[in-house]
Amino acid sequence: MGDLRRDATEIWTAGLDAVRAQPLVQRSVQRDGDHLVIDDQTWSRSQFDRVVLVGGGKAGTAMARGFLDAIGDWLPVIGWLNVPAGTEPASKDGTEAKLGNVTIHPARPASVNEPTDAGVEGTSEILQMVANAGPRDLCVALISGGGSALLPAPAVGITLEDKQAVTRFLSAAGADITELNTVRKHLSRIKGGGLLQACRASHLITLILSDVLGDPLDVIASGPTVNDTSTAEDALRVLGKLDPNQQLPPSVYRLLEHPPSGSTSPPESSVLSSLCVIGNNAVAVDHSGIRAEQLGYNHVMQSARECEGSAEDVGRHLADMTVQMLRPPSDAHQTDCLITGGEPIVTLAPADIRGKGGRNQQLVLAAYQRLLEHELSEDEWSRVCILSGGTDGEDGPTDAAGALIDGHIHQSAVQLGLEIGDSLKRNDAYTFFDSIGGLLMTGPTGTNVCDVRVAVVASDIVR
What pLDDT does 306 receive? Predict the structure, then answer.
């Protein structure tokens, strides 16, 4: 039992290690004497006087470290990154720090994934910095998951409180990332290509660590350096589905129904822009598979390319697949490890009954409930482990990356008489797993490529 938990954790961690932001950037940015090579593009030092480094996301600090390490003294660098508080070297009390001449700005508290005043201040600095750039500047944007909340710049007529209300409401209503960002792009001055339009450098290259399934470039962090393909009408359609009674602030509807002149067809930017995805969920899943093979597992891998639906449904399906591995037909090809990646959604319970949890914890709790329905024997419980965790180390508004269930954790739940159905209904999976040692704790990881799930089973002969 302990070996299974150890193996599942090692397999999951291998996926996480493969998408650590700092080494990913270092591998993507190569210096060759006087030349800088990024994504098969080459720039000569003689073309520029300096580099302007900007961006935002949960991986911002690690990406900046990787970039600065890669270019060395190629050219002077100035810059500004918006990151979550507690991301080194930024302090937990919200104090800004420096990497050389690059400001690392805590734009929101840890585990509070919504826009803040500090985020607005930092985003204004970024927009001003790229607007002040000139033809002898190379601008590099580092974009990663969480950037939508970390880079708030409310459009004229919209307040920060309006944007917070939109984020909270749509998230609670079960909006997927595409729906959420479609709305947010049309309420912002930086999203939907706003940073690209503001930039006055001669070249802008964006390094992207994708936290959106399928890597749609205009959706990741709401596409600050990508011209928007959605319209205000698209945003209104999302609200029509999720806010049919128009509970959101009237200012939101006024702006979407009467967008400013020119906002639907922004002027074409003169900056030469390119985009490079340096890591995504598929990379993490692939490397988890490599570790599973090294550990002797006959594994199957799948990385979702689009929204998966509810965390509860995904968890139940994962449990069903696990039981199929436990109880294979005699003539079936034996599989004993399943690795999947994706990002399901959770529709939140009303605030007055809501507990504490995140989508991975909710998923594992639903998987546990389904395993109980399969009436596993004591022997079967000793031969199974399911783990699900967010690669950013933050599962919802909690300090856990996710959760796991195995025979030992199951026995603890039985001894305590815990009620799964009530915890699922109230989104209180954190409390459930915290009481029985089932939380996956990593701390902030400095990266973010959605979630990785691992299910392993032992054969009848204990591993």
Answer: 87
The rounded Cα 310 to chain-centroid distance in angstroms is: 17
Q: How far is CA 354 from CA 163, 180, 312, 349, 426, in A?
A: 22, 21, 16, 5, 5
The amino acid that residue 364 corresponds to is: V
User: What per-residue confidence (pLDDT) applies to 236?
Assistant: 97
Q: Chain-centre distance of CA 433, in angstroms? A: 22
| DSSP string of 21-37, one letter each residue | HHHHHHHHEEEETTEEE
Cα separation, 127 vs 99, in Å, equals 19
- Mean pLDDT along residues 298-314: 94
| Predicted pLDDT of residue 95 | 73
Task: Report the half-sphere exposure of 456 (CA within 13 A, side-chain side).
Answer: 28
- Determine the Cα–Cα distance for residues 201 and 328; give it in Å rounded to an integer: 60
Cα 190 to Cα 270: distance, rounded to the nearest angstrom: 17
Question: Are 134 and 167 within 8 A, CB to CB?
Answer: no
What is the number of other CB atoms lying within 10 angstroms of the CB of residue 71?
A: 20
pLDDT at 110: 81
Torsion sign (Cα): 300, 304, 307, 311: positive
